[in-house]
Amino acid sequence: MTTLTTARGRPFALVWLSLILVPLAVVTATVTRLHKRHLSTLAADWSARGDRAYRAGLAGDAVDDFRSALVYARDDRAVRLKLARALVAAGRRAEARGYLLTLWEDEPGNGPVNLELGRVAARDGNVAEATRYYHAAIEGAWDSQAEQRRRESRLELVDYLVSAGDTARARPELIALSADIPEDVALRKTIASLLARVGQTASAQAAYEQILTAAPNDPEALSGAGEAAFRSGEYAAAARYLTRAIARGESSPDVRRDAATAQLVVDIDPAQRRLGSAARATRASRAFEAASARVTACLALHPESDDLHTLSSRVAGIAARAQQRSLNAHPDDLETVMETVFDVEMGTARTCGEPAGIDRALYLIARSRAAHQ
Amino acid sequence: MTLRRPRLRRIVLTEPQLFLILALLIGVSSGLSVVCFRVAIESTRLWLLGSAARPSPGRLLVVLPAVGLVVAVLVQRVFPAVRGSGVNQTKAAVYIYNGYISFRTVVGKFTTSALAIGSGQSLGPEDPSLQVGAGIASAIGRRAGLSRGTLRLIAPLGAAAGLAAAFNSPITAVLFVIEEVIGTWSAVALGAIVLAAVSSAVVQQWFLGDQPLFRVPEYHFTHASHLGVYAVLGVVGGCASLVFVKLALFARPRLRALPTWTWYVQPAIAGLLIALIALRYPQVTGAGYDYIDQAMHDRYVWQTLAAIAALKIIATVLSFSSGTPGGLFAPTLFIGAMLGGAVCGATRMLFPGFDAPTGTFALIGMGALFAGILRAPITSVFMIIEVSGNYSIALPVMIANTIAYLVSRHYQRDAIFDVLSHQDGVRLPSMEQQREAAVHRVEDAMRDVPADVLTSTDTVGDALARSDGAHAILVSPRPGTWTLLSVQDAERLAADGNAALAMGTALALATPLPTLYPDQTLDVALRSIGDYPFLPVVHRASASRLVGVIGLDEILTAYRAGRA
After folding, report:
1. What is the overall mean pLDDT for chain A?
2. Chain A: nearest CA to B144, how far in angstroms?
3. Per the CB < 8 Å rule, is B11 touching A11?
């Protein structure tokens, strides 16, 4: 290599060296552009591969693919979220949590990230943390269909709380959810079902009835309304809805059993409206017979029970007054007779377990009455 | 029509001006080269190991040994000067070869390092970048016709530029080159090095973007008790540094001592062993910045982090000792990050309430290992501050780094680069020893204030009366000024009838003596002493206050005592 050692030659050397940099810069620019393009393609390819694997249920493969995508697009938040979802699906929740927390640190108000964190916490059984993240998701930012995503997040939270047995926290969420819901039958059914699960049976029945105004013959809504009414002690309504549901094709054994029970309640309850005194006396007499048989059978199984002996004595004591003829003559005794019947059904249920058939119907009436009192 | 001479010829540049302009050109060209180097490494990796994050076992077991063989042949046959990391080679260029690094070495380092790191050898691109930058600087300096002295300074410019671009951290690069390569803070060199490093980093960011090598989580100092855990990390980092350095320094000369033909297969065998480790832990291959990023963001449990750190030490020792070209920076940071994460995880397990983020520990672990292995304590602190962009991390970093540095230094006297150069039969100056060398000061050598010191009111007669056999008497003709009056001159003045003349008048025009301060080095005293029999040592707060005197005999006696 020749050198330009004189001071006069130095400017030429600098110009010459600067000119060499131009092609070097052009080559570098071309090489880096091609390289970046290649890396982007690789990132997109691996991400698409991961999507396919995830959809096919191959969570482990999806994890590897998304990891490979992230090698070439480290800051791609969408891929990082996909990887976290795949990790959750693969049961690697601790790793998923790490990815999600990194995303969360960047954007604490990100809806999808909070939702995934909520799901991870839910699967880990951490109710408080899950609730916190779900709430952040409900209040968080979503790229599209924000209202729907928020509603779905709240719905998922309620579902989780109900599954976790935390109905106290689920109730206000459901109330907030049902306050503003669109005309979507499926969504309304879900909410009504959740209301029933958290014990808001009256609200659930009302929600189902609202659905029935739009879709009067919907078997699911009919059975839902019937079950809700059944649990509220509205046996007449329950029998009506459940019978209609069965007629519309509802075939669940529980629905059939509850329909039969509700019908029995309607048929046996002397306190039903629009009954004449003779019909009430007939029903009371029939109920007394059933209760008498029930206490006798139960006492045979548990002769040591003093309570049952007491109940049996009470039954024997008013047997004459419980005859249909006597009741027709003395309608005032009906109340005393039915009180004995209800005490028998409640007492025998405690000792011999829940009854079936007519005894079950009487037991439900007794329980409903006790609840109202 | 007359031809006009080009205006360019009228521009005459002095060498310092040229040096600064060249610093800019060196920075740009080194930056471009390092960008190409990084692309070459990534492309080689994609080509050889595929694009999957976890390379297939078949590829690992074939590619690593095969490329190891190719690299060995290239190193033995074509580029014999490219062995090792590149730091010592750059120092050798500065101190032995007058700043000369052949362009062939630049090409060789670029090619073999890209192949080695791209194929998965456990080495990093920073030190090779440093040597590539230094080589480019050397070539440019030669082309520009710099003097030998300036040429010797130009290689460090390129080194800083190369390192700045490779690590995307100009401050770290400048400090490392000053701390490890040139060892002194010269204003001219510092300005040019900063210019080269900054321009190189700008070029790198221009082409590759300003994305950091790893995403650093935010750090907040939350609890003083965490400092104790950082101290533990310093101890762990110091011990890990020792293990790494001892293993490397043990294995390297023994592998070098094997027959020459084995030098062709050593990188291949190292590659095969690393491939076997990588079947279970692919994190140990290459520079591993992606995995540092993952460790910082809680991707691994602490047991995995500890295992990866241990295996990375083994893999890096294998790669480095086998003579494969490649750097130690990235593996050092990798091991530190993994150990930091592991210490954090283990602490969390022991103390469930411990809430410090893993990323912070990984970051501080990197600094601790850097201080422990590379023994550049100042660089290690500033590197972490620069990488994190957070000054509040300085306190834990200083604690961990200092402890790691002291542990490493206590059990391994010489720094790894110094021992490596000794193993190669080269005696390069040790920057660490220079820093640690005892400094002889004037106060250690000066003698007490002599009894015959005269002031401005004393007379010539007083001088003769107090001379007591001395050849010269120390006189202060004015407050804060000192001079010497020879007995011969005093006698002549007395003979001329001036025995009653006051010193202030007699020596009003005498040349003042240079004065010394007690804390100045003996080097300064030696340069100042000239032909004077002794010099006054005065208090820094008052030049009138004499605290002692020092002569050549005292200086030489102190030097001899120091050497003994």
Report:
1. 87
2. 6
3. yes
Distance from chain centroid for Cα B36: 25
Domain contains A254? yes
Find the helix or strand (DSSP H, E) in which B431 lies: helix B431-436
A233 with A284, same domain: the answer is no
Quick one: A282 and A346 in the same domain? yes
A31 interaction partners in chain B (CB closer than 8 Å): 35-36, 39
Find residues 129-188 of chain A whose CB sits inside 8 Å of chain B. Answer: none
- pLDDT tens sequence across A112-156: 999 999 999 998 888 889 999 999 999 989 988 888 889 889 889
Domain contains A94: no
A282 and A344 co-located in one domain: yes
| Chain A residues in contact with B14 (beta carbon < 8 A) | 7
Q: In chain A, how many domains are there?
A: 2
Whether A254 and A299 share a structural domain: no
Q: List Cβ neighbours of B272 (8 Å cut-off, separation of 6 or more).
A: B61, B64, B65, B68
Q: Which chain B residues are closer than 8 Å to A20 by Cβ?
A: 29
Q: Report the pLDDT value the prediction gives residue A58, as an integer from 0 to 100.
A: 93
Q: Is the CB of residue B107 less than 8 Å away from at least one CB of chain A?
A: no
Phi/psi for B542 (5° steps) reads -155, 115
- B136-145: pLDDT as tens digits: 999 988 888 7
Residues 98-117 of A with CB under 8 A from B: 98-99, 101-102, 105
Separation between Cα atoms, residue B129 and residue B38, nearest integer Å = 9
Tell me if A158 is assigned to some domain.
no
Looking up residue A248, the CATH number of its domain turns out to be: 1.25.40.10
Could you say which of A7, A24, A46 has the minimum Cβ distance to residue B12?
Answer: A7
A258 lies in the same domain as A325: no
Assess B32–A contact: CB distance below 8 Å, yes or no.
Answer: yes
Same domain, A293 and A348: yes
User: How many other CB atoms are found less than 10 A from the CB of residue A281?
Assistant: 25
Give the pLDDT score at B1. Answer: 46
- The overall longest dimension of chain B from CA atoms, in Å, is 106
Residue A285 lies in domain: 277-371
* pLDDT tens-digit readout, B5-34: 555 556 666 777 788 888 999 999 999 999
Q: Which of A33, A39, A49, A102 to mutate to test the interface with B (most CBs of B within 10 A)?
A: A102
Which of A246, A266, A286 is the C-terminal boundary of a domain?
Answer: A266
Based on the fold, state whether residues A338 and A288 are members of the same structural domain: yes
- More confident site: A233 or B242: B242
Q: Contact B299/A95, CB-based, under 8 Å?
A: yes
C-beta pairs of B145-150 under 8 Å, 24+ apart in sequence: B145/A3, B145/A4, B145/A5, B145/A6, B145/A9, B145/A10, B145/A13, B146/B15, B146/B18, B146/B19, B146/B22, B147/B15, B148/B98, B148/B99, B150/B15, B150/B19
Whether B88 and chain A come into contact, CB under 8 Å, resolves to no
Which of A243, A266, A289 represents a domain boundary (last residue)?
A266
d(CA A217, CA A196): 20
CB proximity A37 to B under 8 Å: no
On average, the pLDDT of chain B sits at 88
Contact B207 A28 (CB under 8 A): yes
Give the tokens for residue B310.
């241990």
Give a yes or no: residue A90 inside a domain.
no
ipTM of the complex: 0.78
* Cα–Cα distance measured from residue A245 to residue B211, given in angstroms and rounded to the nearest whole number: 63
Same domain, A242 and A303: no
